[in-house]
Specification:
By secondary structure, this protein is mainly alpha-helical. The protein contains eight helices and three strands. Strands 1-3-2 form a three-stranded antiparallel sheet. Strand 2 and strand 3 form a beta hairpin.
Length: about 190
């Protein structure tokens, strides 16, 4: 049996990036409310990507560690009834990645390298999409968002972003101009 056939990470199939794209399409106010959980998830995907990339060069050590690193549990808040689709999709993609990582020992070296390369690419795309979703609110209407207990440092916004009235001046005062928009300073 050609092991490359049963490996889900083929050139046009990127389940992690597809799930991250769904999450990135959430309403900006919902993304902002979930930002802490999404930032944590982005950090975890960075660690998984680093481990998967290492497994390409050092298969024995990194491949045994990869299934454990892929054993991620998303925050229950991302599954709440009021949340849009995406969290379950990402959980399913992570489970598939974990199963695939567990099967790499049986794969031929070539099929294993190809699968790991594609998995690493998929992780990179997912990480980039989630990073963007966590930091970009350009053009968003956030007038109804409750920003009271949210960390806003690093958010990118522009002149079309609509903030809640009590927050608009504070946002402007704590932001710096960046690439045709603004970025809220870390405080």
């Amino acid at each position: 049996m050609d092991t490359a056939r049963w490996m889900p990470w083929r050139p046009r199939r990127r389940p992690l990036a597809t799930a991250a794209r769904t999450i990135a399409s959430w309403d900006p106010a919902v993304r902002l409310q979930s930002r802490a959980h999404l930032l944590w998830l982005t950090q975890q995907l960075t660690e998984v990507r680093t481990t998967a990339h290492s497994a390409i060069a050092q298969p024995a050590a990194a491949r045994t560690r990869l299934p454990d690193v892929l054993d991620l549990t998303l925050a229950p808040q991302l599954y709440a009834d009021r949340m849009p689709a995406g969290a379950q999709q990402l959980t399913d993609a992570l489970r598939a990645a974990r199963r695939t990582a567990g099967q790499l020992a049986a794969a031929t070296p070539r099929a294993g390298r190809h699968t790991l390369t594609r998995l690493t690419d998929d992780l990179g795309d997912a990480q980039e999409l989630l990073e963007h979703a966590c930091h970009d609110v350009r053009g968003a209407d956030l007038r109804a968002a409750d920003l009271t207990h949210l960390y806003l440092g690093g958010l990118r916004w522009d002149s079309t972003t609509q903030w809640p009235d009590p927050w608009a001046e504070q946002i402007r005062a704590t932001s710096d101009p960046v690439n045709g928009g603004h970025r809220i300073r870390d405080t």
